Prior knowledge:
alpha/beta, Rossmann fold, two-stranded antiparallel ribbon, 6 strands, 40% helix, globular, GDSL
Amino acid sequence: xxxxxxxxxxxxxxxxxxxxxxxxxxxxxxxxxxxxxxxxxxxxxxxxxxxxxxxxxxxxxxxxxxxxxxxxxxxxxxxxxxxxxxxxxxxxxxxxxxxxxxxxxxxxxxxxxxxxxxxxxxxxxxxxxxxxxxxxxxxxxxxxxxxxxxxxxxxxxxxxxxxxxxxxxxxxxxxxxxxxxxxxxxxxxxxxxxxxxxxxxxxxxxxxxxxxxxxxxxxxxxxxxxxxxxxxxxxxxxxxxxxxxxxxxxxxxxxxxxxxxxxxxxxxxxxxxxxxxxxxxxxxxxxxxxxxxxxxxxxxxxxxxxxxxxxxxxxxx
Length: 317
């Protein structure tokens, strides 16, 4: 068994390295990317407010990591529903429609890319960000918690979703995209939801295998695709919030309970899409907290990851 895990670890390290590092042949960066525009696809983690609000504390600041990356390049980024190039939508899964916990009209990541490719053209200096997997994992976790499927089934389904996301990234590259950033789910086993539902192990395994299988499928695209490791960065933030100027990485700071399906983990749960500075814990400074609700981060968590993502992009291209 130890040899199997060792071989798997070596393989995945090689895959990740090819997507984290620039192509071989030069030890210096000859030019830096100055994108003409940023185009994003994904789920609630990247949603800039397709339906009017974001999955964080809605305080009117730069409170989503994709917007922060765009601004770092001197570019604006707005939802496609407002004529912009951010197609990411809350509850979006990679290729499957949401379960009955969400609006079945939600466009999948595949459908988001379909819409873009049908109406627009790939630009030579466009920066594409594809961020998905969280909604797929939530569906699996809810089923495991309810006893509707086993943890092994959840892992198998998550692995397929990871391969499906890689296929969507490949579509962009095949269409001519030269700069594609891919971000899978963070380790949902560390989320307040998984901890509270006693599914930490199942969600940690599902998150890891989603990203593992996605990386294996993308290994040959290392010259055009950059993997930004959300799992690594969020593991660090959860383990040591003071290192990121926060004090709490376990308590959701929002109090905005949604009587409906909310973020997909069940009715009557806190939904950060309904959260504002007036609906947080009493006497709390919300940016001292990592989590807005049981899944999605506060503006502080978003900004820390945005900084990390921009640094990775800038060091690569």
